[in-house]
Amino acid sequence: MTELKALAAKGKGDVAAILPDTVSSARYTEFDAPYLSEALEAAGLSPTQFSVQNAQGSDATELTDAQEAITKGASVLIMDPLDSGVGTAIENYAKAHGVGVIDYDRLTLGGSRKYYVSFNNVEVGTLIGNGMVSCVSAWHVAKPNVLVMRGDPTDNNATLFAQGYDAVLAPHFQSGWTQVGQAAGTWDPPTAETEFQQQFTAHKNINAVLVPNDENAAPIIHYLQTLHVKPRTFPVTGQDATLVGLQNILAGYQCGTAYKPIYLEAQAAAALAIFLRAGVTPPSSLVNGSTMDTQTKTAVPSVLLTPEWVTASKIAATVIKDQFVPAQQLCVGSYAAACKANGISV
């Protein structure tokens, strides 16, 4: 931290974080924005030397936010693109103005960023796949007929998640399990529910569903509950350790969730920004890997963090310990007993 503060004192220009947010997800408002602000200040920047903007799910707003930040003196952008189209436009504009870009959370395919920081998204998918395998066994699903769902096909993270869980599930589909149905893929929860209902109506033998995040899983679980599906009988997976996801885990309707401590991602992005702002190459202890941009065929220097699979028994030692979700919010009403049983103190 001392080194970062020394570099912050020498570096020039402001740092601007441009986050996407969407109507269906408040992750960036609730977690990334405050974590990034805290991390940038801890790294040595004053509040007047950085800004965190929220595009509210609009490509046009995200591009405008980035352009305005550069006009006001930003020398580094930390940018999570809504999609690679707007991401590439932002990175082209930044490059033309001598501004370095750090891709945050998802890679801009075809872009020109300097660095990429995220969790190891193939490993995220691997955790989800292994979570399904463990759950099928623990919940005694004798003949697994699994619908494998996916995120938005235009999102590189969704592609990497699928790479991970497809590799885990492939040998099981070759030796007793059955892959049933096919969904187009989305990050929109209502669309995910519609896709599931269509597949479940067409294939009544589906008795497990791999879902790549908690928000898509939630309406699917609610639909299964309307059909009087009992707890611990129909495996459903998730990701992001959301409040609803954790409650569904406690209730026995979701196997687990891939937890990504976002504060570590924000801290890594802030550290990269300080090095980039000062014109100094970051150490290998920070930049620990590379990620292939499949459009430009270039390896992007990357900070790849480690996710963790969280089941009911691990909630206390992970998301509660990290204050990612307050126990007071999690352990309400019918979830209080399950919290107590799993060592979660309110």
Describe the fold and architecture.
With 346 residues, the protein is an alpha/beta fold. The chain has two domains: 2-119 and 261-305, 3-Layer(aba) Sandwich (Rossmann fold), CATH 3.40.50; 121-259 and 309-341, Response regulator (Rossmann fold, 3-Layer(aba) Sandwich), CATH 3.40.50.2300. 45% of the residues lie in helices and 16% in strands. It contains 13 helices and twelve strands. It has helices at residues 2-10, 27-42, 59-71, 84-96, 121-138, 156-173, 189-202, 214-226, 243-251, 262-278, 316-320, 327-330, 336-341, and strands at residues 14-19, 50-54, 74-79, 100-104, 115-119, 145-148, 178-179, 208-210, 257-259, 289-293, 298-305, 308-310. The strands form three sheets. A seven-stranded mixed sheet has the order 2-1-3-4-5-11-10, with helices on both faces. Strands 7-6-8 form a three-stranded parallel sheet, covered by helices on one side. Helix 2 (27-42) links the parallel strand 1 (14-19) and strand 2. Helix 2 (27-42) packs across helix 10, helix 3 runs parallel beside helix 4 and helix 5 packs parallel to helix 6. The protein is globular.
What is the secondary structure topology, with strand pairs?
Elements: H1 2-10, E1 14-19, H2 27-42, E2 50-54, H3 59-71, E3 74-79, H4 84-96, E4 100-104, E5 115-119, H5 121-138, E6 145-148, H6 156-173, E7 178-179, H7 189-202, E8 208-210, H8 214-226, H9 243-251, E9 257-259, H10 262-278, E10 289-293, E11 298-305, E12 308-310, H11 316-320, H12 327-330, H13 336-341
Parallel strand pairs: 1-2, 1-3, 3-4, 4-5, 5-11, 6-7, 6-8
Antiparallel strand pairs: 9-12, 10-11
Helix pairs in contact: 1-10, 2-10, 3-4, 5-6, 7-8, 8-9
